[in-house]
Amino acid sequence: MSKRTSKAGTSGRLGARYGVVVRNRIKSIEAHQKEKHECPTCHHMSVKRVSAGIWECHRCGTKFAAEAYSPRTRKASAAEAAAAAAAARAAAKEADAAPAPKAEAAEQ
Questions:
Q1: By three-state DSSP, how is residue 46 classified?
Q2: Prediction pTM value
Q3: Which domains does the chain have, with CATH numbers?
Q4: How far apart are the C-alpha atoms of 63 and 54, rounded to whole Å?
Q5: What is the rounded distance in angstroms from the CA atom of residue 41 to the CA atom of residue 61?
Q6: Where are the alpha helices (DSSP H) in the chain?
Q7: Which residue of 34, 55, 71, 104 has the fewest CB atoms within a 10 Å radius of its CB?
């Protein structure tokens, strides 16, 4: 027998319903949700989802609340976004402060 869901993945259970964009979105969300994640306490790759928004580390037993499909908290997501924005502003400031090449070298 051949594998029925080799291309469709976990969204193969939906069959031909709901459209390809929705099925691909479900496939990518569920793939990320079901993989093992890093524990914020012991930093071991053993965090699994218990239920919607509840995550547990199978190594140290830490249970914590986070987003429904990923173990990142909203506070951490906001901090990452702020850090990325600050880095982008710093890069733009450096690009503006860099001296322009002199035209005298091209004239010679």
A1: strand
A2: 0.60
A3: 9-94 (2.20.25.30)
A4: 7
A5: 10
A6: 20-34, 74-97, 104-107
A7: 104
Instruction: Give the model confidence (pLDDT) of 9-24 as tens digits.
Output: 888 888 889 999 999 9
**Which two structure tokens, joined as six digits, stand for 103?**
């035209």
The residue type of 74 is: R
pLDDT tens string 26-60? 999 999 888 899 888 898 999 999 999 899 999 99
* Spatial separation of the C-alpha atoms in residues 14 and 46, rounded to whole Å: 29
Phi, psi of 87 (to 5 degrees): -65, -40
Instruction: Decide if pLDDT at 74 tops 80.
Output: no
Q: How crowded is residue 60: how many other Cβ atoms within 10 Å of its Cβ?
A: 13
Residues 50, 21, 54, CA angle at the centre, nearest 5°? 10
User: Phi and psi (nearest 5°) for 101?
Assistant: -65, 140
> Are 55 and 63 spatial neighbours (Cβ–Cβ below 8 Å)?
yes
